Structure formats: structure tokens, C-alpha cells
């Protein structure tokens, strides 16, 4: 189903490119846009993860890193990936004060996870494990292909909108369509954002929370992490790269935008308090099952004590 959703998404975004090309340049513009969109789709499939990691300046790290926090982070990710039956992902760090994380890659064999320095500094180790288990759940569910390709193409449409707004369409009698096209293209970035919302469903985040809680083994730790990340993101810890690239906001475990402008437009995440409540119910269920499994079974025979 995830692959089907990806193909449907790519078809929709390609149609947007073609419509934009037609409005700006007529049939010739539409053909150029089609060729460009097909090339971008192919390029995104193979390279979108590299583009996203480069956009955020993600640096790959391993167990030999001199910082203990980073060594623990790498060790925990590798252990949890093995527990989940996944190949070892690339483990990266992003220099940002805002605690946050995401996963990327076209499939589990080419996956990468990224955590910000703020996440490693401001959260406890068990909370970091919970966050990265959530990201590994996205890898396991093969969500990362849709998430990464969507970010790249939606960002390209936003760039096209800006280009058309400033440079598109002459105002002579022979090219009125170009003027209309330039205005219409300027509206395509919000449309691209809506496609992101459609493609990255809220149910997908709940599912990653559920599976991540199983991988990490501590739903309460993930719940605490979500609350902290939400508080820091809204409390002045700005992710400047995310603000400059809002089409990637859906990739993070918590929306990294600061609540202004495009934040509501790219609101692809469920409400944090709803996610926390679901995780706490999951944790209570696990605790109940563990307690039941440790109960001493009642004796089947009569009481044979001193007063029996």
C-alpha cells in the first residue's frame, strides 16, 4: 500500500508540474514540464535521502565518536535496528538546538536516521531511544520513501512557484496566459503542502508510535519525549533549516516549524497530547500483561495448612 500511495502521489505532483507548464508556456511548456517532472521523479527516488540529509547538514557518526552522548545514541540505534530485524541504518547528527529527529531512505537497506544535537543534549537516554525507535518504525513500515520523495518534489514545486511569481509571464497581448500562469503557479506551493498532508497520513504517525514503542520497549519514554520536543519546538528552539524548507516538516517526529506562517499549512502530525494518551494506554496494557504473567497460579488442591 505504501508503494501504491507513492505512485499516486508522484502522479499527482507530476500533473501539477504539467499544469504549471501549460499555464506558463502552453502545450510546449506542458511538454517541458512533463520531461522535467519525470526526470525529477527518477532523481528523487534514488537521491532524495541524500538531498534531505545535505539540506540539514547531517553528519554521519559511529561508535568511535569522542562524545559519549553520540556513542550511546549510535549504539542504541544499532541495537534496536537489529532487534527490529532491520539492516544497520546510517546514523547521522544535525547541528540544531531544537530537539527533533527523522528517518529517510528509499528502503530499509538504504535507510538513514537523523537526530539533532538538541535531542541528544536535552532528552534522557531512554527518551532518545524512544524517539529513534519511532524513526526505525518508519523504516520498518517503508514510510520513508513516500516521506522523502514528497519532501523533494513539494520543495521543487515551491521553488517553481517563486520563479513563476517573479519571472513568469510577459504582459503583452500575445501572452496573457503567461501572466495568468504566473499568478496560478504562485498558488501551487500551498497545493503541494496539501498533497503532503494527504500522503503523510496521521494514522502513519500513530502506527510508528505503536511499533516504535514495541522496538524501544518503553512507551512512556516515547510519550515523555514527544511532550518535551513539542514544548521545546514551541518555546523558542527554532529549527532554521526547517523554517527555510517547510516541505520537509512532515518528516520530523514533531512538526519543527515555530507556529507561524506555513506551520498550519504543513500540519501533518496528530496532536501531541493524543499521541501521548495512546502511548500511555499502550504502556498500561503492557504493564497489565506483564503483571498477569507473573502471578502465582492458584492451587488446584484443598488447603492443607495447619488449620486445613
Per DSSP E runs of 2 or more residues, the count of β-strands stands at 4
- Estimate percent helicity: 55-70%
What order do the strands of the largest sheet run in, or round the barrel if closed? 1-2-4-3
Count of individual helical segments: 11
| Helix/strand/pairing category | mainly alpha
Rounded to the nearest angstrom, the distance between the terminal CA atoms is: 64 Å
Average of pLDDT: 80
Strand content: 5-15%
From the alpha-carbon coordinates, what is the Rg to the nearest angstrom? Answer: 24 Å
* Coarse shape: elongated
Which sequence of SSEs, written as H and E, runs from N to C? Answer: HEHEEEHHHHHHHHH
Largest sheet: 4 strands, mixed
- Detail the poorly predicted runs: 170-176, 260-266, 293-308
Quick overview:
The protein is mainly α and 308 residues long. Helix content is 64%, strand content 5%. The chain has helices spanning 2-55, 68-83, 117-122, 125-140, 144-167, 176-185, 188-199, 202-216, 219-234, 240-244, 272-294; strands spanning 59-60, 90-94, 101-104, 112-116.
Tell me the layout of helices and strands.
Layout lengths: L1 H54 L3 E2 L7 H16 L6 E5 L6 E4 L7 E5 H6 L2 H16 L3 H24 L8 H10 L2 H12 L2 H15 L2 H16 L5 H5 L27 H23 L14
Parallel strand pairs: 2-4
Antiparallel strand pairs: 1-2, 3-4
Question: Main traits of this protein?
Answer:
disordered C terminus, 308 residues, mainly alpha, 4-stranded mixed β-sheet
3D structure, described in words:
This protein has 308 residues and is mainly alpha-helical. Helices cover 64% and strands 5% of the residues. Strands 1-2-4-3 form a 4-stranded mixed β-sheet, with helices on both faces. The radius of gyration is 24 Å and the shape is elongated. It starts with a helix and ends in a 14-residue tail after the last helix.
Amino acid at each position: 500500500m505504501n508503494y501504491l500511495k507513492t505512485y499516486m502521489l508522484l502522479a499527482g505532483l507530476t500533473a501539477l508540474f504539467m499544469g504549471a507548464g501549460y499555464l506558463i508556456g502552453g502545450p510546449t511548456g506542458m511538454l517541458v514540464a512533463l520531461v522535467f517532472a519525470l526526470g525529477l521523479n527518477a532523481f528523487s527516488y534514488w537521491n532524495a535521502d541524500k538531498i534531505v540529509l545535505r539540506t540539514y547538514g547531517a553528519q554521519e557518526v559511529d561508535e568511535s565518536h569522542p562524545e559519549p552522548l553520540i556513542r550511546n545514541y549510535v549504539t542504541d540505534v544499532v541495537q534496536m535496528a537489529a532487534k527490529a530485524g532491520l539492516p544497520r541504518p546510517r546514523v547521522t547528527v544535525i547541528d540544531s538546538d531544537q530537539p527533533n529527529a527523522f528517518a529517510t531512505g528509499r528502503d530499509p537497506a538504504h535507510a538513514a536516521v537523523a537526530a539533532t544535537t538538541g535531542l541528544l543534549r536535552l532528552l534522557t537516554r531512554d527518551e532518545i531511544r524512544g524517539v529513534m525507535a519511532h524513526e526505525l518504525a518508519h523504516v520498518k513500515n517503508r514510510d520513508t520513501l513516500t516521506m522523502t520523495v514528497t519532501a523533494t518534489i513539494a520543495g521543487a514545486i515551491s521553488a517553481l512557484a517563486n520563479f513563476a511569481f517573479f519571472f513568469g509571464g510577459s504582459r503583452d497581448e500575445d501572452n496573457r496566459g503567461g501572466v495568468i500562469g504566473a499568478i496560478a503557479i504562485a498558488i501551487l506551493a500551498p497545493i503541494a503542502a496539501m498533497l503532503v498532508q494527504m500522503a503523510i497520513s496521521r494514522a502513519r504517525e500513530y502506527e510508528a508510535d505503536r511499533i516504535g514503542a514495541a522496538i524501544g520497549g518503553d512507551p512512556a519514554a516515547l510519550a515523555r519525549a514527544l511532550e518535551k520536543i513539542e514544548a521545546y519546538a514551541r518555546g523558542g528552539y527554532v529549527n532554521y533549516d526547517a523554517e527555510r524548507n517547510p516541505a520537509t516538516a512532515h518528516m520530523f517526529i514533531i512538526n519543527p516549524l515555530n507556529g507561524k506562517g506555513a506551520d498550519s499549512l504543513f500540519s501533518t502530525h496528530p496532536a501531541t497530547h493524543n499521541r501521548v494518551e495512546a502511548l500511555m494506554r499502550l504502556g498500561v496494557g503492557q504493564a497489565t500483561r506483564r503483571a498477569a504473567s507473573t502471578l502465582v497460579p492458584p492451587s488446584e488442591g484443598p488447603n492443607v495448612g495447619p488449620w486445613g
